[in-house]
Amino acid sequence: MALDLFSAKGMPLDQQRFTWRDMVGKPISKLDDDAFTRVRIILMNGIELDALRMKHIAARRNRELRVPLAKIRRCEQHQATMINWLLGPDHSPLETTIAYEQVAIEVTAAVAQREPDPYMAQAYRFGLLEDFDHMYRYSALLDRLEGKDANNILQSYTDILPGRPTVVEHRAPEDDVRESYDRSKADQLTKLHALMITASEFQTHDYYMNIGPLFADPVARQLYAEIASIEEQHVTQYGSLIDPDESLLEQMLLHEAMEAYNYYSCVQQETNPRIKAMWERFLDYELGHFHMVAELFKQYEKRDPAEIITGPLAEPVTFASQREFVRQVLSQEVDLRANGTQFVDKAQESQASIDYRTQLNSAGSPSETVAAGYVWSPGTELNRRAAVAV
Ligand SMILES: [Fe+2]
Ligand SMILES: [Fe+2]
Ligand SMILES: [Fe+2]
Question: Which ligand is nearest to the CA of 13?
Answer without folding.
Answer: 3
